[in-house]
Design brief:
Elements lengths: L7 H8 L4 E5 L7 E5 L21 E3 L2 E3 L4 E2 L5 E2 L1 E2 L15 E2 L3 E3 L16 E4 L11 E2 L6 H7 L5 H14 L8 H16 L7 H14 L12 H17 L7 E2 L2 E6 L5 E9 L11 E4 L10 E13 L3 E6 L20 E6 L4 E9 L7 E12 L4 E3 L3 E5 L5 E6 L5 E10 L9 H23 L6 H24 L32 H31 L9 H24 L30 H29 L13 H14 L5 H8 L3 H16 L1 H17 L1 H10 L1
Parallel strand pairs: 1-18, 2-19
Antiparallel strand pairs: 3-4, 5-6, 7-8, 9-10, 10-11, 12-13, 13-17, 14-15, 14-16, 17-18, 19-23, 20-21, 20-24, 22-23
GO biological process, one term: cell surface receptor signaling pathway
GO cellular component, one term: membrane
Membrane topology: Multi-pass membrane protein
Length: 726
């Protein structure tokens, strides 16, 4: 970041600015097999001729990545059911929907019903016919509580209706509360546990679609769900994957169930999920092979290879979850938007497992890099990830590799912690240093001049101007020597030898160096400057209001207390509520020493101290100062009819008086707030330049208006001599 324009850093901060493998094992006295599950390392390079992608497909490394509603080599094959309008066969309207997925009706339950606003019906987009099946209609008075109470004793026909009703009632993610999620998990668990009812394919499809919809709920909702119900559901799904025949309709956007029935003896199984623009599971994007298939790594979303040391002829089942909502850890608390898909690979109960090996390439974007990782498996007893029996390693090719031995009923995962790739600021440009230096000199001379000539104007104005100059001078010096963070964390894997579960997917460094101290001092002295600016404006207002008696005698004492006390209180609250030694970035930024303003998505967050510890109090001061300037300008611009022409003040002097007050009140910062709400690029650039130039020269402006100009006016002979020499 180039600081060629002073103070742009403060406004720019305001406006711009593990994969999881879940494997279930059951070890008995049968012969032992060795299973190796590998991601990423299976990818090979395949040369594909250049293509022209259709229907908004994107060409990546010679391969078309298609949206969900199109498929094929060039995204030219329709993969959806077109919109269906009401007709003699159905009174409902269904929008365009991807094949194999449920569409929700446009029609909603009436306001007077229990489920007011909920979709009245759903229909499955048939893969074979490319049209909608007969709709499932919801009783708008039916609730998940009622379904949960009835489902156990229902007949197969009733269960089919209850399954479709549950799917409709969970189709709106915003309506999924912890209670609703728990009820839906219990209902689907009962439906899928009954081997007789799951022979009715429609029940299994509706149940899997419901689970897929539950995974769409916000992460916060899962903190209060019944984790026992979720745990039982995941184990039921593992059994379902071994029981069900291969069915493409059991692939829904956020979860999929796949199976391979034991036939001829095999030595390996490869599961591949291919990429799409919308990051959903689709039937035609998930493939099972009994030999290692060569595919380009550019089109693979995830890949798992299970190999056996001996011939294996039993059933194998897979369950894919788009996220880890069902595996809520107490020790691992993610805070970044990193992908943690879960894969369950399941063998029949009479199959033994001796060892599981799996590897993955860190799946992070360019803004993050891997710091460390842990090899873990899920403990149903502790309801958390543990590392017992697992070791880790990092291959030269960049894969993270895990090995876990002699475990049964274990769900494996690689939990990764990432560093943010911070763009540290560059050293200050010489233009910025020159501007700051000139302002420091100008402010120092102004303060000295005000002290020397204080008898000519009284003590209160001198007190105010000197404090403004002092606070602004210190701020400029802190900006020059303290804005850059001297401690920079170099990106790159720093893998520890110990296999320990990380606290989060965001690796955080404890506070090091003086950056936090500089941030607090910068915040304090900048707030101090504006507080004294505001007190100067209040003093002007009181002088106009009490033109005879002048400023009240108590004002200097109150000004000293407020001027130095208010900024100290704001800084103290900011530090006390957001700063921790182990997590300093709650208070400050990493790239440079200034207040934190952005969340982990790099969006401005009003909960950060930049807003309520600087932007908000500064805004209130600027509003007050603007009102005082308008009042001052109105008062001095009014013409008094009782004054003769010789005693009237010229328009030039009136304008200069208003300009001088505007400079002292720091109103040039108003352009920064205008800049915050400006969207047009050219105007934004112009305002940025204006803002920076005005604030770069603020110290020089104060020197000219409050030291040089009064000095020349009080010594006209010097001004006359200068004019004659010209």
């Amino acid at each position: 970041m180039d600081y060629s324009l002073l103070l742009l850093i403060f406004t720019s901060a305001v406006f711009e600015k593990t994969w999881c493998l879940n494997t279930t094992e059951s070890t008995t006295s049968t012969p032992n097999y060795s299973i190796s599950a590998t991601f990423s390392s299976l990818y090979t390079t395949v040369t594909v001729p250049s293509l022209v992608c259709e229907n908004k497909g994107i060409l990546q490394d010679g391969i078309c990545i298609c949206p969900d509603d199109w498929t094929g080599t060039t995204c030219n094959i329709q993969n959806f059911c077109p919109e269906q309008k009401p007709s003699h066969t159905s009174k409902f309207t269904f929008p365009k929907t991807v094949l194999g997925q449920f569409a929700s009706s446009v029609e909603r339950c009436p306001p007077e019903t229990t489920n007011a606003g909920m979709h009245q019906a759903s229909a499955l987009c048939n893969i074979a016919t490319h049209s909608f099946d007969s709709p499932n209609i919801l009783n708008c008075s039916l609730t998940l509580d009622a379904i949960n109470a009835w489902v156990s004793g229902a007949t197969p026909e009733q269960k089919q209706n209850l399954a479709s009703s549950t799917q409709i009632l969970t189709s709106i993610p915003e309506r999924l509360t912890p209670h609703n999620i728990t009820n839906a998990a219990k209902i689907t668990n009962i439906l899928l546990s009954d081997q007789q009812t799951t022979q009715t394919t429609d029940i299994a499809i509706s149940a899997v679609a419901t689970i897929s919809q539950l995974l769409n709920a916000s992460h916060e909702m899962y903190s209060s769900v019944d984790h026992t119900a979720i745990s039982e559901l995941t184990q039921t799904l593992q059994k379902l994957s071994l029981r069900e025949k291969p069915n493409p309709l059991l692939v829904q956007p956020k979860m999929a169930v796949q199976s391979l029935k034991g036939q001829t003896p095999i030595r390996q199984v490869q599961l591949t999920s291919f990429k799409g623009l919308n990051d959903n599971f689709l039937p035609d994007r998930i493939k099972l092979h009994i030999t290692e298939a060569e595919v380009s790594k550019h089109i693979v979303d995830l890949q798992m290879n299970v190999t056996f040391s001996e011939d294996f002829d039993k059933d194998i089942g897979f369950v894919l979850y788009d996220n880890d909502q069902f595996f809520q850890s107490k020790s691992f608390k993610p805070s970044l938007d990193t992908k943690r898909r879960v894969i369950s690979a399941n063998l029949q109960e009479n199959s033994g497992i001796d060892q599981v090996q799996f590897a993955v390439t860190p799946s992070a974007d360019s803004t993050m890099s891997l710091n460390d990782f842990a090899c873990v498996f899920w403990s149903y007893d502790k309801q958390d990830w543990i590392t017992d029996g697992c070791t880790k390693n990092k291959s030269p090719s960049g894969h993270v590799v895990c090995s876990c031995k002699k475990l049964k009923n274990a769900n494996f995962a690689i939990l990764m912690a990432f560093d943010i790739n911070y763009q540290y600021s560059e050293a200050l440009h010489w233009i910025s240093i020159t501007g700051c230096a000139l302002s420091v000199v100008g402010l120092s001379v102004t303060a000295l001049y005000q002290i020397i000539t204080r008898k000519s104007r009284g003590g209160t104005p001198t007190l105010l101007v000197v404090n403004i100059c002092l606070s602004m001078t210190v701020f400029y010096l802190l900006f020059i020597f303290g804005i850059n963070n001297p401690v920079q964390h170099v990106n790159g894997t720093k893998m520890s030898g110990e296999n320990i579960v990380p606290e989060s997917d965001h690796h955080k460094y404890s506070d090091q160096g003086p950056c936090t101290a500089f941030t607090a001092l910068l915040q304090f002295f900048l707030l101090l400057t504006f507080t004294w600016n505001t007190l100067y404006g209040i003093n002007v207002f009181l002088l106009f209001k009490n033109s005879v008696s002048g400023t009240p005698p108590w004002f200097p004492q109150v000004a000293m207390a407020v001027g130095w006390g208010l900024p100290a209180v704001i800084v103290g609250i900011s530090l006390g509520s957001t700063y921790r030694v182990e997590e300093p970035l709650g208070y400050r930024q990493e790239e440079f020493c200034w207040l934190a303003s952005l969340d982990h998505k790099q969006k401005f967050n009003i909960k950060k101290p930049m807003f309520w510890g600087f932007v908000l109090p500064l805004l209130l001061m600027l509003i007050s100062n603007t009102a005082i300037l308008l009042h001052f300008s109105y008062k001095i611009c009014r013409t008094n009819p009782n004054l003769n022409k010789s005693r009237k003040t010229s328009l030039t002097k009136k304008m200069m008086s208003s300009f001088s007050l505007a400079v002292m009140l720091g109103l040039s910062w108003v352009t920064g707030y205008i800049l915050m709400i400006t969207q047009e690029k050219n105007l934004k650039f112009i305002l940025s330049v204006v803002f920076c130039l005005l604030n770069t020269t603020q110290g020089v402006q104060i020197f000219i208006l409050f030291a040089l100009r009064p000095f020349l006016n009080s010594n006209p002979a010097i001004l006359t001599l200068c004019v004659r020499q010209k």
